[in-house]
Amino acid sequence: MSRYRGPRLKKIRRLRALPGLVTQLKYNKNKKKQKHIPFRKRNKEYRVRLEEKQKLRFNYGLTERQLVRYMHIAGKSKGSTGQVLLQLLEMRLDNIVFRLNMASTIPGARQLVNHRHILVNGHIVDIPSYRCKPRDIITTKNNERFFDKTKILKPEMSKHLSISKDYKARSFQGQVKKIIDRSGVLLSIKEFLVVEYYSRQI
Question: Where would I find the Small ribosomal subunit protein uS4 N-terminal domain in this sequence (predicted)?
Fold first, then answer.
């Protein structure tokens, strides 16, 4: 199944908060005001697991085949499969660019990467699924173009990332300090339900 390219608001209304599909600053302002709509009383277990899986897939803009591949990698890794899965998705280059506020949404960040605007350790990387590692330095090919748009993130939002700006040279660079913790994930999701969904499907 190909990547979803339809209306985003439709998916946000159905699956509730998807921070990767809305402007990050707007999401942070309305985070406290959001109310979770309870499921129907007679809700099947399959539907609950399916919605959690769809929430994960649409937020990060993945195809079904990509998500299955990440599940295989997470299942073979040490530690909790759900947490490893979230770490793999959060360390994707397009998501790192989004979390550094170089783009307002994950689809926008993916477009920047595809158009060869992003540099990793001084080299152009045009693969959105590139897995970033600790100590990787993220910059843009044209710093002045993104200098005014990029805002320094609050420490509590992204403890695994850091961003520094040089106002005289009008340049900035982001750095991956460590692997993200579960508490640093913006998306509100029960990852164990996604693991249960694929344990029956695969």
Answer: 3-90
The answer to whether 60 and 109 have CB atoms below 8 angstroms apart is no
163: tokens are 């961003």
Residue 19 confidence (pLDDT): 75
- In the CATH scheme, what is the code of domain 93-178? 3.10.290.10
Overall average pLDDT of the 60-65 stretch: 91
Contacts of 2 (CB under 8 A, 6+ apart): 63
Q: Interhelix angle for 191-201 vs 64-76, to 10°?
A: 100
Q: Which two tokens stand for residue 172?
A: 């900035």
| pLDDT (0 to 100) of residue 46 | 85
Return the bridge partners of 123, or none. Answer: 120
Query: Closest Cα to residue 18, out of 55, 66, 64?
Result: 55
Q: List the 161-166 sheet strands across, edge first.
A: 123-124, 118-120, 137-140, 171-176, 161-166
